[in-house]
Design a protein that fits this description.
- It is a single chain.
- By secondary structure, the protein is an alpha/beta fold.
- The protein contains four helices and five strands; from the N terminus they run H-E-E-H-H-E-E-H-E.
- A five-stranded mixed β-sheet has the order 1-2-5-4-3.
- Strand 3 and strand 4 form a beta hairpin.
- It is flat.
């Protein structure tokens, strides 16, 4: 039963990869404009690093990015689970893998929570990526005020206190 389940999961994953590959062949590559740096106040020095405007359909880009990150994380989750259940590894290695798996799950849930919180600020869509202490936020908007960026940074700092936050915004052409 478990082998059949793994086979169907693998088939679904390969189908998704094929669809993404075809999409990438059909859609022209995304173009970015130069980075626009915000003037930083003294109390914002550590929070606002950069703001970038993207020229593309952010909604499709968000979904594609979410799918790619999900695929990578599922592969990592599978490796970690395999390591935890294997008899080949020492207890310390299994504990380390368990901690990594917990961290991965926490990052995923925090990203989803932050995306919902940012959407509640009035943005049609948001994409949050956490990689260690780096938090990257991309929102769907024609422009982003300093106030809105600070609101997002405040939300993120409540969840990830020592985070290095980067805020981007994309044109609203979904």
């Amino acid at each position: 039963m478990q082998l059949k389940s793994k086979s169907s999961w693998l088939l679904a994953l390969l189908t998704i990869v094929a669809v993404i590959s075809m999409y990438n062949l059909m859609v022209p590559p995304k173009q970015s404009q130069p980075e626009i740096a915000l003037k930083e106040d003294t109390d914002q020095k550590a929070t606002i690093q950069s703001v970038t405007k993207e020229v593309s359909s952010p909604s499709l880009l968000f979904e594609e990015t979410r799918l790619q990150v999900s695929n990578k994380r599922n592969q990592l989750r599978q490796k970690l689970t395999q390591k935890i259940t294997s008899e080949e590894y020492f207890v310390e290695e299994k504990n380390k893998a368990s901690i990594e798996l917990d961290t991965l799950n926490k990052e995923e849930s925090t990203e989803a929570l932050l995306e919902m919180d940012i959407k509640s600020l009035g943005f049609p869509d948001a994409l949050v990526r956490i990689e260690g202490q780096e938090v990257s936020v991309t929102v769907m908007a024609n422009e982003l005020s300093k106030y809105q960026a600070n609101e997002m940074i405040y939300l993120i700092k409540k969840e990830c206190e020592d985070a290095n936050v980067k805020v981007k915004f994309g044109a609203n052409n979904y």
